[in-house]
Amino acid sequence: MKIQFLLKSTTMYERLGIMTLSSILKQKGHSVQLLLTEELSEEECIAKVKEYKPNILAYSITTGEHNYYIDLNKMVRNHYNCFSVFGGPHPTFKPEMVEKDKVDAICRGEGDIYFLELVERMEKGENFYNTSNFWFKKPNGDIIRNEIGPLVENLNSLPFPDRKLLYDADPSLRFNGKKMFISMRGCPNQCTYCFNHVYNKMTEGKGKMLRVRSVDNMIAEIKEVKQNYYLDCVFIDDDTFLIKPNGWLEEFTEKFRKEIGLPLFCNGRANLIYEDRVGKLLKQMGCQTMCLGVECANNEISTKILKRNIPNEQIIKACEILHKYKIKILTQNLVGLPVDNPLKVDLETLDFNIKLKPDYAWSSILYPYPETELGKLAIQKGMFDADFDKIHVSNKTDSALNFGDPKLKQKIVNLHKLFGIIVQFPFLRPFTEFLISLPLTRFYTWLYFAFYGYKTVKNANKRGLLRMTKYYMLFYFKYVSGIEKHTVFSKVPRK
Q1: pTM listed for this prediction
Q2: Domains, the chain
Q3: With contact defined as beta carbons under 8 Å apart, do 40 and 48 qualify?
């Protein structure tokens, strides 16, 4: 069988899910191709699909970008007849999108086992409508809704991600020295803005929520990438890297230091960096930067509404430990929450970040993801109408919420753009209210990504500095210029 993944662009992000699926499919003799569509005309896109002649068109999508892929699939399918499958967070939590025109199937949750099963059944001409995790729309319009099957128990059984698939489609990613890996799946935390608390309920009784790869399996993958591609920093993209069985981190530290010897970037949680021993261990393994969630500095909102259960005192303590061991801190923050006085809360978070003195304070605009508790709260408060099909914005550009006052919304969006800059240069803080009131959102957007690029390039390994600078400049002018560009597929005549 021939499977063609269609992806708008990589946007500097390694799509581990797609790459893993590709490896699984190729192991069984199937052909897989990744087609990037953003810079293709409709005619070119259709021509490339027809040239490859896929049996299945596949898409992995998040909420906000789903409209683009639904329309893209419809456009292609009007000129090439095959089977279309959608996976990723959006169809997982909005499975009714299977009812959309030209959508044949959606996958809920992990597709590692079940997508292969679907492909194998289709190749053999067998009935595939009872494949776990999938919802199907039959030719007569009937919808088949299958239950979610067991989770992948042994992550070591999965092949390493097919990076060649991605790098062939986007050669520039070869020269990004920071490459992504995961050492585990699952997150036990109940943060209301995140998919995990919803997904944990969906998969309850389907196997262990937390699954961890062996250290040797992890090291083997990093070695393979180091030998075959340019690598100067290992980015472990676990939701929380420090959640591991007893002894795992110690074993990883020893083997990573001896066999890899590269800087490491990972995600952490302040309540797990509670003593000096943790900081020392991170330093020993070569941790260069820790991404630390702050999200909201208002303890009441953080605890009762976001359900993070991490008091500010714990965050301060964690930062003190990381500073002591000269580990750079990248804080993550949310602005534009569905709460009373959202701007006041955002400024409180800004001031708290100034106190923490991170290397970089990243911020995102709150996005009301489907089925999440915070998304439901936004709907209850009348700040979102629950129509996700109207959303074309991302958490880096605009807010999907209605704050009642357009000027208030503009201030929140502008604060988001200036957040990291003000934390870096606190002398700007007295002028913040004035700056965010100015109608300069587009200029601030460019400034936001320029500052992010500066931080990205600045932290690059000296050996890869030139490559990283060139890479980000290409990204900056290609991606930022077209951000929030609404693609309308209309030039190719429909049949």
Answers
A1: 0.92
A2: 2-145 (3.40.50.280), 176-459 (3.20.20.70)
A3: yes
